[in-house]
TrEMBL record:
It holds the Pfam family YjbR. This is MmcQ/YjbR family DNA-binding protein. PANTHER family: CYTOPLASMIC PROTEIN, CYTOPLASMIC PROTEIN-RELATED. It comes from the Bacteria. The keyword DNA-binding applies. Keywords: DNA-binding. The keyword Chloroplast does not apply. GO terms for molecular function: DNA binding.
Amino acid sequence: MIEREELFDYIEDKYKVKPDHPWDTFENYAALRHKDNEKWFALVMDITPDKIGLKGDKKIDVLNLKVRNEFIGMLRKIEGIYQAYHMDKDNWVTINLSEMNSMGDIEDLIEESFDLTK
């Protein structure tokens, strides 16, 4: 399981980016953006599992990342990676952080999202 603070620390160390909270009504939603163009490369949210096709009513932390379109189908076959919630489903995926074992499981996907949104 990856905790959101672990994720934020990793992104701050590697990309020198801190999360911001663009919505007053969704205080736990955090955008991670490029400093120069302010485009999001990641979005962290706490949502109910049904939003990504899972059972349960206790909120979970998820991470949305942009990926190359040709990899969407393959990525969604990996445990913990789902069709994007709240973003373009052809270009983004949602990762259930509680299903990831370590940051190593998603570091390449974060980098890919960072590069694709430059």
